[in-house]
Design brief:
The protein is mostly beta strands. The protein contains 8 helices and 35 strands. A hairpin with a 5-residue loop joins β31 and β32. The structure holds heme D.
Length: 530
């Protein structure tokens, strides 16, 4: 490869591939892509285990067309030339990015508006509880949308491809984390939302949360890194860096891993702890933040490769997908132990999941699957007397709802809703990727209703698939917002439905609405309602 091609390959790999395959290409949700098997030997020899080495022609096909194993097709995202560069790039030895220390964090830290200079009360009339933070993925921006008027209130620069937004317990601040490791702190009390601080945690990241336990409300922010593999603790209201902890170490199989990335993080409601899920090692850390100088961590063995997850209805158990092991791990945050490891269909991908009362099996938590055409319902424990009869089902997959194909990423419901929404944006067929299916949770034997989000948006059909992705309820729990995620030069939309009637309510679109993906309603995110 020429040095220019290598640089192009490096950039595309970071933006499109590293999330699944790892920076060092050791594999996680995606396959191992180290040269020992990606590079075809001149003598035609095979790799260990007898599998054929790939080589340029085969890699070209895989990248362009995707695979049955869950690799998406890139022929509508990358040009032919870029695909050819990638087919050659991943046969080279992976470059190792630099480490990122506490001093590096300190140097990147910008306290734009110190706490003393921020408003003492809310300076706008917006109903902050119903504001939505919407990722505009490929533009490196975040849209703050007033959920009552459905007007875009403000668009702010953030890190590249903000992955998630989380709220302070107070509901005043929005924290975003870009996949380039940039964290921004946005204050909703100004007349218009204003970024008051930012910091870089590394070069690749996906998760943040504040401290939520009584006495520590929003005192700290934790951020999880993909590269370097570490988590960082910052001051909640300024982002001043306080501590960095590496996650390098042993997997649940007892092997050393040089790149155990931090996947989902959530703050416990019942202890001064964060649940930190380490992807490659399959270890779940309970990090006690009551004394960060003498940090105590409980390490819970589960399964590889940990990814996303959410609370059960009682908010005692955190349910996290060990997606490449086709399992869900349930962590008991009260006892600090693994409560269950549940086998599921292929590649569970819950987002944060969805909790509801199943007519036959009682409280269940739902997850969709990237690799299978079902939504799995797992029975979860409840202390309520009237739920004692459901105990026999706890931690079992009690039902699998049929979907028309695989490729689901998110499911969602709300305590006030009778509906369970499921998307399938990673399905290669347009007729599936652009829609949602809605189940009636009072009668799950009824076929789900197909909602054609792309058609309802009223936007013209484009060459690139427009993926209908990620549902979020409004504060009242009577509307569902879905992103229509089009190509990076196409105008996209947020399509809003009345949850009761399933009728289209409103389309939010503008030339600024480019690649919307995750949406986070302040009230629901603040209170972990899903
Ligand atoms: Fe995500 C959550 C990682 C691709 C949209 N995603 C998460 C979480 C992790 C993660 C670890 C949990 C954070 C938490 O709760 O603390 N996501 C990854 C990847 O590694 C992966 C597979 C590849 C990558 O390169 O990033 C990936 N994710 C995507 C997308 O392509 C999506 C669809 C669009 C996008 O914006 O990039 C996407 N991920 C999301 C969203 C959430 C998320 C919207 C939050 C869901 C929620 O309701 O909380």
């Amino acid at each position: 490869m020429t040095p220019e091609e290598f640089e192009i390959g490096k950039k595309i790999y970071f933006e499109r591939c590293a999330g699944c395959h790892g920076v060092l290409r050791k594999g996680a949700t995606g396959k191992n892509l180290e040269p020992h098997w990606s590079k075809k030997a001149a003598d035609g020899s095979v790799q260990e285990g007898g599998m054929l080495k790939l080589g340029t022609a085969r890699l070209d096909k895989i990248i362009a067309l995707g695979t049955e194993g869950g690799m998406v097709n890139y022929d509508d995202i990358l040009t032919k030339q870029e695909i050819d560069i990638m087919a050659r790039y991943i046969q080279q030895t992976p470059p190792v990015p630099p480490e990122f220390s506490l001093a590096d964090m300190q140097a990147s830290w910008k306290l734009i508006v110190p706490v003393a200079e921020r408003p003492k009360k809310q300076m706008n009339k917006v109903n902050l509880k119903n504001v939505f933070a919407v990722t505009l993925r490929d533009t490196g921006k975040l849209a703050l949308i007033d959920g009552d008027t459905k007007e875009i209130w403000q668009i702010l620069n953030t890190g590249y491809a903000v992955h998630i937004s989380r709220m302070s317990l107070s509901g005043r601040y929005v924290y975003t984390v870009g996949r380039d490791g940039l964290v921004t702190l946005i204050d909703l009390w100004f007349e218009k939302p204003t970024t008051v601080a930012s910091i870089r945690m590394g070069s690749d990241a996906r998760s943040v949360d504040t401290s939520k336990f009584k006495g520590f409300e929003d005192k700290y922010l934790i951020g999880g890194g993909y590269w370097p593999p570490q988590y960082s603790i910052m001051e909640g209201d300024t982002l001043k860096p306080l501590k960095v902890i590496s996650t390098r170490g042993m997997t649940v199989d007892g092997e050393y891993h040089p790149e155990p990335r931090v996947a989902s993080i959530v703050a416990s409601h019942i202890k001064p702890e964060w649940v930190v899920n380490v992807k490659e090692t399959g270890q779940i850390l309970l990090v006690d933040y009551s004394d960060i100088k003498n940090l105590r961590t409980t390490t819970i063995e589960s399964a590889k490769f940990l990814h996303d997850g959410g609370w059960d209805a009682s908010k005692r158990y955190f349910m996290v997908a060990a997606n490449a092991s086709h399992k869900i791990a349930a962590v008991d945050t009260k006892t600090g132990k693994l409560a269950a490891l549940i086998d599921t269909k292929k590649i569970p991908h819950p987002g944060r999941g969805a909790n509801f009362l199943h007519p036959k099996y009682g409280p269940v938590w739902a997850t969709g699957h990237l690799g299978d055409a079902v939504v799995s319902l797992i029975s979860t424990p409840s202390d309520k007397k009237e739920h004692a009869k459901f105990k026999q089902y706890n931690w079992k997959v009690v039902e699998e709802l049929k979907m028309p194909g695989a490729g689901n990423l998110f499911v969602k419901t709300h305590p006030k809703s009778n509906h369970l929404w499921a998307d399938m944006p990673m399905n290669p067929e347009r007729e599936n990727a652009e829609v949602n299916y809605v189940y009636d949770i009072r009668d799950l034997s009824k076929p789900p209703v197909r909602i054609d989000v792309a058609k309802d948006s009223g936007l013209p059909v484009t060459k690139a698939l427009r993926r209908a992705v990620h549902q979020e309820y409004n504060e009242k729990g009577d509307e569902v917002w879905i992103s229509l995620w089009g190509g990076k030069t196409d105008q996209s939309a947020i399509v809003i439905y009345d949850d009761k009637t399933l009728k289209l309510k409103k389309v939010i679109t503008s030339p600024d609405m480019i690649t919307p993906t995750g949406k986070f309603n302040v009230w629901n995110t603040q209170h972990d309602i899903y």
